[in-house]
Design goal:
The chain is built from 7 helices and 17 strands. The protein is an alpha/beta fold. Helix 1 runs parallel beside helix 2, helix 1 packs parallel to helix 7 and helix 5 runs parallel beside helix 6. Bound molecules: NADP nicotinamide-adenine-dinucleotide phosphate (NAP). The site of NADP nicotinamide-adenine-dinucleotide phosphate has 23 residues, from helix 5. NADP nicotinamide-adenine-dinucleotide phosphate binds next to helix 5.
Length: 306
């Protein structure tokens, strides 16, 4: 029996681990992929307090090492479900069952897809969801980024230093991402915004060769020849495996108060899978701190009952 099982080793989960360990709780963190979550794909973090400029990867490594040094046990298994046994919960993975007095879901989110024919088959053949992972393959080539949020803007900026040409395809004429980044992009001569436009087809000959892009205002479709397409159209929260125990909003985010509690006593949510207005690194780590503190309080209340 652990005191707290945390599902997800991204910024929210690892910060929760730090706070729980410092409260002398035994902590197990389960992670389905590699630690760090989405932030590892950010080339440069410039809006986290104190850090003027740190790569997402370096940030993740430091956070992971901090959680480990404080005593968190981190196991790389995917949590596929949970059972609520009243005074304790069981988190289930394909290999094991882990009992805990409290559980924190910091599962984050996964890439939203465009939903176009051939999308899955073209991953690694010209289509990617991670500019920092795959951008290097497109040195001096022609690429496009789809999306208008911070990820798309930052990806386009990053790629503009590698690729010969970067199209930035966005479905509206205003970006959702920060104006400061949009301004830096406008200064790049090799970045061409393709606004009010959606990708309607992926054309390939074993590898991606071009995309068809429909301008929603003019109704015209153009074909853009490409070596690479980077899809950055947001994320989908990973809450489905736990939906029996949490209320989800229509987009699938987990409802909780600002105290990160859910409708199930002893079950907390933290980070990008939680319903909230601002999804940033700093709000993910803040959630982790709140969820762990609340979980510690919950465990104390169980002990008081005994
Ligand atoms: P996001 O902010 O949700 O933006 C997704 C973008 O994709 C939006 O521009 C959206 O268009 C577009 N989109 C959504 N579905 C689409 C579809 N089916 N086809 C075409 N376009 C579609 O997602 P994100 O950029 O991944 O960012 C996620 C969160 O992380 C945000 O809160 C963001 O601020 C944060 N983040 C922060 C940083 C940073 O602070 N350095 C870096 C990266 C991400 P509309 O605008 O029309 O809805």
């Amino acid at each position: 029996m652990h005191d707290i099982v945390i599902v997800g080793a991204g910024p929210a989960g690892l910060t929760a681990a730090i706070y729980a360990c410092r409260a002398s709780k035994s902590v197990l963190v389960l992670e389905a992929r590699s630690y760090g979550g989405q932030i590892v794909n950010t080339p440069s973090i410039e809006n986290y307090p104190v850090e003027m400029n740190i790569s997402g990867f370096d940030f993740a490594v430091r956070l992971y090492e901090q959680a480990k040094a404080l005593g968190a046990e981190i196991v790389f298994e995917k949590a596929v479900g949970m059972e609520d046994n009243g005074r304790y919960k069981t988190v289930v993975t394909p290999k094991n069952r882990y009992d805990a007095k409290a559980v924190i879901l910091a599962t984050g989110s996964e890439n939203r897809k465009l939903g176009l024919e051939g999308e899955d088959e073209l991953i690694g053949r010209g289509l990617s969801y991670c500019a920092t992972c795959d951008g290097n393959f497109y040195r001096k080539k022609t690429v496009a980024v789809v999306g208008g949020g911070n990820t798309a803007l930052e990806d386009a900026l990053y790629l503009s230093d590698l690729a010969a040409k970067v199209y930035l395809i966005h479905r509206r004429d205003a970006f959702r991402g920060e104006e400061r980044t949009a301004r830096r992009l406008r200064e790049k001569e090799n970045v061409e915004p393709v606004l009010d436009s959606v990708v309607t087809a992926l054309n390939a000959n074993r590898k991606l060769t071009s995309v068809c892009v429909l301008n929603k205002k003019t109704g015209e479709t153009r074909e853009i020849a490409l070596d690479g397409l980077f899809v950055a159209v947001g994320r989908v929260p990973e809450n489905v495996s736990f939906e029996k125990y949490i209320d989800l909003d229509e987009a699938g985010y987990a409802a909780s108060g600002e105290n990160c509690r859910t409708k199930t006593p002893g079950l907390f949510v933290a980070g990008d899978n939680r319903a909230k207005d601002v999804r940033q690194l700093v709000t993910a780590t803040a959630d982790g701190a709140v969820a762990a503190t609340e979980a510690v309080k919950y465990i104390s209340s169980l002990e008081t009952e005994d």
